[in-house]
């Protein structure tokens, strides 16, 4: 069942070089690895931008790093776009491309060539996006000083990034729906696959809206004179909904599945109620639909003060809490029976759900109008908690499924240390930003762009802590990258290092006969 | 029986529709507006309402597909086909150059949108060519049950078109790229560039012919790197523009000499 | 003269292509949903302030109506194609797909003529920017559909549009119906409501 060597070589064929094989592959494991490697590299690039922004925030009056507020804004927006669409989401897509077909018992991802196309379109789009930001383009600036052609390049790169992610998502979702093995009812699929199904569905109904925004901006921008959407200082406002509450939850949603798959195997206990977790994941998914929260198009009551926004913000918190409680319950029941040490991904995945919950609580607080937090640095804190949680889960996922994806063992201790650096970084960035927000520090998304990091606001110490946090994040990401490199040189991995017995670890044909396949899938050789 | 996929997408559809109506009523919609899709009265905040309704429609479509196909379950498919075990959802396919070329087509198209309409057209043509090749590859993979025969069939059909086309395009692109470099260089520089490029081409060809045992990896690497370098130089030169030309001789006749600086 | 018999290819698993097409089409529909949401929002705002949206006489019903009729008819010919393929009626499936594609081209031709005729610059106002973006995106959608049908015809000539491979046509049909549905919203929201 899990034989997935799509790039078969016929007898007498010329053996392709490594470069040719990498470029022309349609094997889902290789494509998944390409997503993961590119995502981690671009994560490092994004976090470098984030670190520079944090350093600049120490004293905005001096502008020692960037020289002017427009360049600062360009890097600030690049950090947010890069963290989400060039790093965390692609890493999830990579994990899903590699793991999901195996979890549902498919011999390969469906439409493998389209899956490869999705990767290549995304990676070239990512290059254009980064280039656009680097050559004085980006997504507009407060002072409207960008080069129009560079802004156009950034927007078109963003469109390619969205297109690539959507193309890959279609392939993954089709595999889940139409590629399952016998007996693998949709309600029986592992939680990671289910969370990807839900998250992918939400991505498919939100990312094209972001594309619509980008197209509208591009067309207006490249006309004779921008009249509305392409006016530079309005561009980020039109796109920023994709990088704040509630849309960020949709990007982070696969973390629920990662934790949901790791915890029961590591604790050797089934979920108390698998079906309930499926429902909870779907509910979180629907509440994370954020395409409507486009403050730039407010007419009358601002959208973020409307009832639907506030209700969504509050409803999602107990759902995440229930997920966390469910996971902790499995852990509690399993700890007593375990004599060996718990694996690193277990801690990380549970921690990621906890951080997601923090982000959701902060999101709910932002929706409370009297607190006036919508335009404050709490926006950045909420972003860091949520996307940071997703990053932590992604690291847990690569440590968990890496043996399967690469076929070699990674130093788990080093990976754990890197992930902990990331976790510390998330807390050190998000907590000070939360406090600063309550103290009135502006976020760049607001009109008072020059006010962020104003030394007179009394947040010097908090900005210093956030800078240390940004450094931790970068160090953690570099550590993750090194872990991946060390894995390539590691020893060959065991077929099932965690004793998981779930479908992706099986090496023979499988027919699912159990209602709860997560721990006890019946393996029937040749079925 | 309602399938799981139907429950998921119908649930998302119902939730999105409820959110649309709720948002409509709480953002200034009239009594009947939010429940009549705006046909009778206002729907409140248009962005919120339209996007939730769109999401509901899309999830509804997916729910209908899910229930109609019984979630495309393996058992349901087997029943449709009248077999015990349905074929795999995806047959094994070999390596393929079309995805990366398709992405390059999109990238060329994008660069063309920013830089020059001519490049946009090149990207479009590349995309059309990749689509045709992709289709014919798919067709050939379904032609017979023997992959080897399918491969031969494809090659017999397409090689007579592919090779001359590729040669024509390849030579054209290289000539265009090198000509841009020559036009952007100074007069003496152009002579130097032409001499160096010509010598390199001749030298490499001579070496390859004399040493047929050179590993294929080396040959392909040299070719790829050289082509990429020429292309990059051509793009940079095109962006830089031609050197200044001064007409000598003037007059109304066709005989004149152009001299660059 | 000798002949060789080859075994038939393993049949495709049904549903897969249609599911993929439904998911991809969903993304396209949402793209238009995003544009319509902003269009209706800005239009409502302009109306509320008593401002002009489209210039007087710029949007005329007959061209939009003709396009709508063309698209509606093309939906029927597309159904005809699907029906023919299911019944392994190759001649009619070629005919139906070709007619559908021709109708798509006709619709594109009419739209280009109309936009040349009204001669409104794209940056005349927010309304014209929206008009060009929405109608232009729909033209791109139809163009992709026509191209897809062309590729299907190519495969059909290779003998693969039969009931064994009905998903090939069903998947394209789903996309085409979505293009018709999007045009219906354009017709109602732009040409009729103005």
In words, what does this structure look like?
Chain A is mainly α. Chain A has a single domain (25-520), classed as Cytochrome C Oxidase, Chain A (Up-down Bundle). Chain A is 64% helix and 0% strand. In chain A, helix 2 (28-56) runs antiparallel to helix 3 (69-103) and helix 9 (254-267) packs parallel to helix 11. The longest helix of chain B is centred in the middle third of the chain and has 38 residues, at 147-184. In chain B, strand 1 and strand 2 (257-260) form a beta hairpin. Among the domains of chain B are: 4-81, no CATH class; 162-248 and 255-261, no CATH class. Chain B has helices at residues 4-26, 46-68, 74-81, 98-114, 117-141, 147-184, 187-210, 216-240, and strands at 245-248, 257-260. Chain B has 261 residues and is mainly alpha-helical. Chain C has one domain (16-192): Cytochrome c oxidase, subunit III, four-helix bundle (Four Helix Bundle (Hemerythrin (Met), subunit A), Up-down Bundle), CATH 1.20.120. In chain C, helix 1 (16-48) runs antiparallel to helix 4, helix 2 runs antiparallel to helix 3 (90-118) and helix 3 runs antiparallel to helix 4. The longest helix of chain C has 33 residues, at 16-48. The model of chain C has no long low-confidence stretch (mean pLDDT 90). The interface between B and C is large, with 41 and 35 residues.
CATH superfamily of chain A: Cytochrome c oxidase-like, subunit I domain
| Overall pLDDT metric of chain A | 88
Q: State Rg of chain B.
A: 30 Å
Judging by the overall fold, what is the CATH architecture of chain A?
Up-down Bundle
Distance, first to last CA of chain B: 81 Å
Number of helices of chain A: 16
In the predicted model, the low-confidence regions of chain A spanning at least 5 consecutive residues are 1-12, 445-453, 517-527
Helix-strand pattern of chain B, N to C? HHHHHHHHEE
Radius of gyration of chain A: 22 Å
Main sheet specs of chain A = none
Share of residues in strands of chain A:
under 5%
Summed up, the helix count of chain B is 8
Given as residue ranges, the uncertain stretches of chain B (5+ residues, pLDDT < 50) are none
* Overall mean pLDDT of chain B: 87
Q: Taking strands numbered 1, 2, ... along the chain, how are they ordered across the largest sheet of chain B?
A: 1-2
Number of strands of chain B: 2
């Amino acid at each position: 069942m899990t034989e997935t060597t799509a790039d078969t070589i016929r007898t007498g064929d010329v053996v392709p070089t490594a470069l040719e094989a990498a470029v022309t592959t349609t094997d889902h494991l290789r494509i998944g690895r390409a997503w993961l490697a590119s995502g981690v590299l671009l994560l490092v690039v994004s976090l470098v931008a984030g670190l520079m922004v944090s350093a600049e925030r120490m004293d905005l009056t001096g502008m020692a790093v960037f020289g002017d507020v427009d360049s600062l804004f360009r890097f600030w927006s690049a950090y947010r776009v890069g963290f989400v669409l060039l790093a965390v989401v692609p890493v999830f897509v990579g994990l899903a491309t590699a793991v999901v077909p195996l979890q549902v018992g498919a011999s390969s991802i469906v439409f493998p060539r389209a899956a490869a196309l999705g990767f290549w379109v995304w990676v070239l789009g990512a290059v254009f996006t980064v280039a656009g930001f680097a050559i004085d383009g980006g997504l507009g600036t407060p002072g409207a000083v960008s080069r129009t052609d560079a802004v156009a390049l950034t927007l078109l790169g963003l469109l390619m990034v969205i297109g690539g992610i959507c193309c890959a998502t279609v392939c993954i979702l089709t595999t889940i729906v139409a590629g399952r093995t016998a007996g693998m009812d949709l309600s029986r699929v592992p939680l990671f696959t289910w969370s990807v199904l839900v998250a992918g569905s939400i991505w498919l109904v939100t990312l094209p809206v972001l594309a619509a925004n980008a197209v509208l901006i591009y067309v207006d921008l490249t006309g004779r004179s921008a009249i509305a959407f392409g006016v530079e200082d309005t561009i980020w406002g039109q796109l920023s909904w994709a990088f704040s509450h509630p849309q960020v939850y949709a990007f982070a949603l696969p973390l629920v599945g990662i934790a949901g798959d790791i915890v029961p195997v590591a604790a050797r206990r089934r979920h108390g109620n698998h079906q309930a977790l499926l429902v909870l994941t779907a509910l979180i998914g629907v509440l994370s639909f954020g395409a409507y929260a486009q403050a730039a198009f407010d007419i009358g009551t601002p959208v973020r003060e409307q009832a639907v926004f506030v209700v969504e913000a509050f409803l999602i918190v107990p759902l995440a809490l229930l997920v966390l409680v469910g996971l902790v319950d499995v852990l509690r029941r399993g700890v007593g029976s375990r004599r060996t040490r718990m694996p690193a991904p277990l801690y990380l995945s549970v921690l990621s759900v906890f951080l997601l919950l923090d982000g959701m609580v902060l999101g709910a607080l932002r929706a409370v109008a009297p607190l006036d937090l919508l335009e404050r640095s709490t926006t950045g804190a909420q972003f860091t908690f949520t996307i940071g949680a997703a990053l932590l889960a992604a690291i847990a996922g690569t440590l968990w499924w890496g043996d399967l994806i690469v076929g070699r063992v990674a130093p788990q201790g080093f990976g754990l240390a890197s992930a902990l650096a990331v976790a510390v970084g998330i807390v050190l960035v998000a907590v000070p930003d939360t406090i600063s927000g309550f103290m009135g520090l502006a976020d760049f998304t607001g009109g008072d762009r020059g006010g962020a990091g104003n030394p007179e606001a009394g947040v010097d110490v908090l900005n210093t802590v956030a800078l240390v946090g940004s450094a931790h994040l970068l160090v953690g990401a570099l550590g993750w990258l090194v872990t991946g490199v060390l894995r390539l040189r590691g020893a060959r991995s065991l077929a099932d290092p965690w004793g998981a017995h779930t479908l992706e670890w099986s090496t023979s044909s499988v027919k699912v006969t159990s209602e709860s396949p997560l721990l006890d899938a019946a393996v029937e050789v040749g079925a | 029986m309602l399938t799981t996929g139907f429950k998921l997408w119908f649930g998302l559809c119902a939730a999105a529709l409820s959110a649309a109506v709720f948002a409509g009523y709480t953002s200034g919609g009239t009594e009947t507006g939010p429940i009549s899709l705006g046909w009778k009265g206002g729907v409140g905040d248009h962005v919120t309402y339209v996007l939730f309704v769109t999401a509901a429609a899309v999830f509804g479509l997916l729910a209908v597909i899910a229930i109609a196909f019984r979630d495309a379950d393996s058992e349901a498919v087997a029943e449709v086909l009248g077999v015990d075990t349905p074929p795999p959802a995806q047959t094994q396919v070999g390596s393929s150059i079309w995805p990366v070329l398709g992405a390059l087509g999109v990238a060329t198209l994008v660069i063309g949108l920013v830089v020059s309409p001519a490049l946009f057209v090149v990207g479009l043509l590349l995309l059309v060519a990749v689509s045709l090749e992709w289709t014919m590859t798919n067709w050939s993979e379904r032609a017979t049950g023997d992959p080897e025969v399918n491969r031969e069939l494809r090659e017999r059909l397409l090689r007579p078109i592919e090779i001359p086309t590729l040669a024509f395009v390849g030579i054209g692109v290289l000539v265009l790229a090198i000509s841009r470099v020559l036009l952007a260089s100074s007069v003496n520089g152009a002579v130097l560039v032409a001499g160096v490029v010509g010598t390199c081409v001749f030298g490499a060809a001579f070496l390859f012919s004399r040493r047929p045992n050179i590993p294929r990896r080396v040959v392909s690497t040299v070719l790829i790197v050289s082509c990429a370098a020429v292309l990059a130089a051509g793009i940079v030169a095109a962006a830089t523009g031609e050197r200044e030309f001064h007409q000598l001789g003037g007059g109304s006749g066709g005989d004149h000499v152009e001299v660059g600086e | 003269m000798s002949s060789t018999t080859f075994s038939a290819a393993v049949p495709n698993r049904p549903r897969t292509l249609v599911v993929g097409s439904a998911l991809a089409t969903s993304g396209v529909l949402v793209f238009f949903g995003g544009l319509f949401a902003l269009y209706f929002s800005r239009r409502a705002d302009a109306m509320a302030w008593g401002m002009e949206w489209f210039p007087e006489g710029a949007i005329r019903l007959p061209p939009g109506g003709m396009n709508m009729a063309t698209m509606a008819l093309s939906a029927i010919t597309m159904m005809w194609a699907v029906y023919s393929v299911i019944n392994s009626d190759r001649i009619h499936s070629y005919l139906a797909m070709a007619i559908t594609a021709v109708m798509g081209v006709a619709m594109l031709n009419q739209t280009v003529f109309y936009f040349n005729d009204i001669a409104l610059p794209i940056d005349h106002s927010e309304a014209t920017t929206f008009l060009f973006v929405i109608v232009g995106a729909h033209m791109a959608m139809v163009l992709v559909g026509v191209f897809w049908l062309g590729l299907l015809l190519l495969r059909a000539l290779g003998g693969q549009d039969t009931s064994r491979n009905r998903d090939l046509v069903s998947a394209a049909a789903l996309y085409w119906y979505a293009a018709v549905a999007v045009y219906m919203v354009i017709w109602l929201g732009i040409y009729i409501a103005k």
